[in-house]
Input
Amino acid sequence: MTTHGITANPAFRTATVALGAAGLALLLPVTPAIAGDDRVERTGSCSSGARWDLKVKTDDGRLEVEGEVDSNRNGQSWAWNFRHNGSISARGNSTTRGPSGSFSVERRMVNLQGTDKIVFVARHNGQTCRGVVNF
Output
């Protein structure tokens, strides 16, 4: 079947529609997925197999800081602390829980002028997790 000199092949129509949609996408304005998102995230290994994650972002002029440890074992007690430019900003103890055998702690800190150095340290039975973000 021919329509206006073009073969009405279903594969041709699918390709034409796809190319038309791609062309339309080029005309739309490009915006970031999350406008103003200034999150910095670092991950790494601890000294004996666990993993750590440290996230820092701004929130209402302050820093929102989250540290997480994933050891894949429930019931472990970890001592942790946050240092902000060398001074202890927060400390505590957390226990890993299911289903993933992890814990996370979140704190808000003053956003100092210049670069803020955030250090998250967690310890359990000789194992140490240490993450650093310069924000």
The first helix runs from residue 10 to 27. The longest strand covers residues 51-59. The domain at 40-134 is CATH 2.60.40.1150 (Immunoglobulin-like).
